[in-house]
Each structure stands twice: as C-alpha cells, then as structure tokens.
Amino acid sequence: MSKAAKELRSRYISRNKKFDYLPDTDRYLSASVPPSYKFAIIGSGNIGQEHMRVTMMEGRATVHGIYDPNPKSIEQATALFSNIAGDMEPLTVYPTLQEACHDPDVDALIICTPNYTHIDIVKEAITSGKHILLEKPMATTLEDAHTIAELARDYDAVFQIGLQYRYKAIYSEAIHEALERKSLGEVKMINMMEHRMPFLDKVAQWNKFSKYSGGTLVEKCCHYFDLMNLFAQSKPVEVYANGGMDVNFKEFKYQSEQSDIVDNAMVTVRYENGVRASFQLCMFSPMFYEELVVCGDEGRLKVSENEDFLGAHRPRNQFEIILGEGKPSRIATPCYPSYIEESGHGGATYYEHVYFIDNIEKKPTTTAKVEEGLWSVIVGVAAEQSMKSGRTVQIDQMLKEKGLLV
C-alpha cells in the first residue's frame, strides 16, 4: 500500500467513533495526525460550510477562523465547527475582512463569497501573501476576471481557482481515458449537459440577478466550459448561444427588482484546433443530471452522474467507452468512498482540498490554473452576450473591444 493510501485509510479510521475507547498511546491505524496548516474561510454560507467540513475531513489543515457580514451564516458555521472539531480551539470570528486576510496564524484563505464581491476581496487578500483558493467563477465580468488573472500571474504563493468538477469521479476517469491514455484518438466533438433544479436561495438572493452573478452561463456553467476547454485542449474562437427565462423566477422580485437570469440554454463553441463542443442547460428539472460525451477518431466516451430522489436503485455514476474492434471497450461505475462523495459535489470538493494542500507542499497536481479560470469566464461571458444579441460572438473581437490581451 502506498504512503498516500495509508494516510487516507488512517484519516478514515481515526474518525470512527467506535475507536474512541482507545487511549492515545494505543492508537496506530486510528491515530490522528495533527494538522499542518490553518485556513481562514471568507464567506461562511452554504459553500463556505462545505469547505469547512472538507477541510476538517481531509485532515492536513484546520479551519482557524471565518469572516462573513451575515450574522446567521456566522451562527450556523460556528455551530457546525463545534460539532465537527471536537476539542480543538474554538473558531475565530473576524470582525473585518482585513483581519481575516492578515491573521498571522493563518496559512491560507478560502474565498467563497458572492461572485460580484470576488474582485474587491482578492485585491485585499493578495496583499497578505497567503495561499488562496478562490471559488468559481473568479469574477462576473471580463475586466474583473482579467484583473484577477494579472494580480495572480506573478503571485509567489498558491492561487487556485475552485473549478473542482474536473475531480468528480466520472470526469477524472474521462480525463484519464481521453487525455492521458488517448483511448479515443484525436478528440473531435464534445457534448455536455446539465439538468437540475432551480438556483437555491442565497443571502440577498444575489444569484437571481445577472449583475451580481455574471448571469447563469457564467455563474453555473463555468464548470462545464472549463471541462469543455480542457477536453478540447485548445482555445475557443467563437461562441453561439440561445436560451431564455421560461419557467423559473419569472415573477420573482427582491427589493422591487425583477430577476433576470435564464433557466435554459444551448451553447456551441468552436476551437482553434477544429474541435466543436456543445452544452445544454435546463434548470427546471425535478432531478440532478450531468452528462459528458467525447467523440474521437478512434472511439466514443460517455459519462453521467444522476441524483433523482427515486426509491428505485441505480448507480449514481456511470461510465462507458466504446472503441469498436481496435481496443477493449468498457462499462463501469466510477466512484469514491461514500463518505467522500457525500461530503460535497460528488467528492470533488474533497479532492480540490487534497490538491490545494498538495500545491502548498509543491507536489504536482492538475488543479485549475488562473488562466484556465479566466477562459471559463470568457466562454461564459461570450455565451451570455451571444444569447442577448442573437449573433455568434468572435472571442478575439470581444476581447479587443474590451481592450484586453489574453
């Protein structure tokens, strides 16, 4: 068994309450390794609390403190920490963003605040010199995303973008087959799909308004555009999208302002190397379903993830690769241990933290670089623009009009 596998097994056993009867001197497999790093979480709502759980679960770091201007988020996060942290030191609650960013006891900052706040928070956080994990999308506009990319370009510490879907079991296997083993030959076509329920409630309902979220195709779909860019292994040159606000939030207002986010869309992307990709979104589905199909000149790969709340049992994750007569084909159910998959986003957030700490320790990883985060926003913004204008958006022209060089 490799050293990494032993460490994972030890963390799992050390959390098992049935071994609590053992004195510390008698613990070996169930021994807890003291964390090496301390994190401050900026934004302690739903995703902030997911980062908190996963930090404590991964084990090499602990959550030292949190900052959030919403008292109810603080209240719930401190209760969660008390429940999962045992006899560790109580959570520090910072009264200001500046104190959260510059606490000398903290090694890294995890930024998971509303999208439109990222630019101002990053400008403060980056002055700390600490390692940074910035949730997706990195910004809501091209200008802000470009500014963040420039700030991070020569940053001495880790600056990681939270595009963690590439670590879901299904996409990890797809990346391995298509990009590492090159089982499909040369990739030619990519198709992605997400069917899901509407956006959930947020503080001040910021995700119901494009000016705060960047629009649905930036806020939610940057994950999928990152995957499309990754499988294409090329830069997008043109984007066409059509979509609408046909079911969700059509009558929803917050403080007299009418919601304006689309709930369905179809997007096509053409890449420099000739790869073509498409994405379909539906946000009024009574279930959660993702699908990726990649076609190469030597085979076809399909993966999917399903959560439909039905009593009938079927695998959450499915994988198939069809290679005809040339190579073995395979049908499988890729998965992580259940406690990891249940920790958030099918286990992707857990491995995002594994690789964040690996990056801190200068180990090789495949985490999303800042430039990749920028390109996921570029595609999203182009799609939003195309949807509004009804015309194909040429990426170079769009960037030139903004005075941006990427």
Description:
This protein is α/β, with parallel strands linked by helices and 406 residues long. It has two domains: 3-165, NAD(P)-binding Rossmann-like Domain (Rossmann fold); 166-343 and 370-401, Dihydrodipicolinate Reductase, domain 2, CATH 3.30.360. The protein has 14 helices and 17 strands. It has helices at residues 3-14, 46-58, 71-85, 97-101, 118-125, 142-153, 169-180, 210-213, 216-219, 222-232, 338-341, 348-360, 370-389, 395-401, and strands spanning 37-42, 61-67, 92-93, 108-111, 131-135, 159-162, 187-195, 236-244, 253-254, 257-258, 264-271, 276-282, 288-296, 300-307, 317-322, 330-332, 393-394. The strands form three sheets. The protein has a nine-stranded mixed β-sheet with strand order 16-15-14-13-7-12-11-8-17. A six-stranded parallel β-sheet has the order 3-2-1-4-5-6, with helices on both faces. Strand 15 and strand 16 form a beta hairpin. Helix 2 (46-58) packs parallel to helix 3, helix 2 (46-58) crosses helix 12 (348-360) and helix 6 (142-153) packs antiparallel against helix 13 (370-389). It is globular and about 65 Å long.
Please tell me how large the radius of gyration is: 22 Å
- Give the termini separation: 44 Å
What helical percentage do the residues reach? 25-40%
Helix tally equals 14
Low-confidence segments, given as residue ranges, are: none
The chain-level mean pLDDT equals 95
CATH class of the largest domain, named Alpha Beta
CATH architecture of the largest domain: 2-Layer Sandwich
CATH fold-level assignment of the largest domain: Dihydrodipicolinate Reductase, domain 2
Structurally, how many domains make up the residues? 2
Structural class, by secondary structure, is alpha/beta
Number of DSSP strands? 17
Strand order of the largest sheet: 16-15-14-13-7-12-11-8-17
Assign the CATH superfamily of the largest domain. Answer: Dihydrodipicolinate Reductase, domain 2
Largest sheet: 9 strands, mixed
Question: Strand portion, in percent?
Answer: 15-25%
Tell me the overall shape.
Answer: globular
